[in-house]
Specification:
heterodimer; A: about 290 residues; mainly alpha; two-stranded antiparallel sheet; B: about 260 residues; alpha/beta; six-stranded mixed beta sheet; four-stranded antiparallel beta sheet
Chain lengths: ~290, ~260
Amino acid sequence: MNKQRLKAKFIKYFLQSCGSLSIIIVLLIFLFLFKEAIPFIGDPGLGDLFHNIWNPVSFQKEEFGIVPLVTGSILVTLLATVIAIPFGIIGAVYISEVASPREREFLKPFIEILAGIPSVVLGFFGLIVIAPLIKQLFNLNTGLTALTGAVLLAFMAIPTIMSISEDAIKSVPSIYKEASLALGASKLETIWKVVVPAALSGIVASVMLGMGRVVGETMTVMMVTGNAPVISMNPFTSVRTMTATIAAEMGEVTIGSNHYMALFWVGIVLLLMTFALNMISFRVLKKYGMIDK
Amino acid sequence: MADINTENKIKVHVENMNFYYGPVQALFNINMDIADKKVTAFIGPSGCGKSTFLRTLNRMNDIIDGTRLEGKIQIDGSDIYDPMTDVVGLRKKVGMIFQKSNPFPKSIFENIAYGPKIHGVKQKNQLMEIVESCLIKAALWDEVKDRLDKSAMGLSGGQQQRLCIARALAINPDVVLMDEPASALDPKSTLKIEDLVNELKKDYTIIIVTHNMQQAGRVSDYTAFFYEGHLVEFGATGQIFTKPAQKQTEDYITGRFG
């Protein structure tokens, strides 16, 4: 009896520690980031982060303004989202409402394959195919622009948006559809006026998760956005994202230098941004009862 | 069979109708005339085909893959299964109330305005008139008039079902099909729905599927008894309930099976 109870207790603690592992890791990462970044507050001062120029390696004047990196990330993310939303949502509507079962079985694996393409490979594709196309199409000096990155990131966001939206659309009770059809609405009217609005919370959440994926993506944007740290909201300029900056510079920086710490601040800002996006999508899902509290 | 033909105008005429779900035949050689501006009840045990039959009348079975209908169904003399038939127009003319109340997750106003909007009514005050008159017809106006902009999901089960009735009336149908409209409601709400049916038959032809024998007796003028896909007996409700011609009907009504 006692042995039994001991065993149960042991198993409980074991499961508990497995369950809390992710919390511990998240906390440790936060802690580590701050530990490395904190001395920056004293010496160059946090104010330097808000400057408009990122020029961390210089003999005259080092500049650690992360504003161009933040705007770069925001520009690419927003563009990618704008491109991905119509394809993702219309695709989801098609797969869940219009496609025949056979078409569905054929399409769904391809979406999963698209989701599984390594970002480096997507980067190759971007360099060789998309960048020249965009250069030619818009008559630019270079094809390595924010738009190029956004197109490729949209490819990565579309599967996320599509599969989660599809779940949301599929979970709309069929009695709504029947009610709408029985009122003499066509199939299309039923989809746009009843089914999609009823699934809207899930669709919004899917877009948020897609954005989360896009913000954090590194390799593809590093390969195709041109990496110029300028403040611009023009899709046809080269930009540099936060992720690309960290990936490109972290390898060569002197540990403990101001540059090193500035990169950690970039990481913290990035983490907070993805954290915020996740929180928003979580809230949306919770509010509409799509996940348990 | 009853002398519906001589007493009433015929609204729905069904002739040699067979219905299939894929290879499975669900209805066998149905012949029936349904009277205009009367209440006709379909009764029978679960799976007897009464709901399937109801759904053939506004072609709701079309949305189920692999269904097939043989024979003829005419409403006001025109064949609704003719390839040229406009299904949207048909469903506008033949409204439907479902077993489980299914208001859209929108406001009360938007629920009722949905149908008219789809069929081209745009002016706000015209929509408001429709909403008000339909809610009054559905005996719901007094309960909801102060919260038309609130979600329909906040209404009680009985109110939701009356809202669905109001929504169906908003497209101004001739025929209203009701598929066990009160089966999920408490006795009080059920009574309200039945009163409503009695009220509505002045203006509409009502066909109601019900499991509840007393309900059929209370609300209907004519009753059809279905068993295993066959129309066993059809006649004036009083006659069906007091002296049915068929043994099966009598057994079912007196509760010996089903």
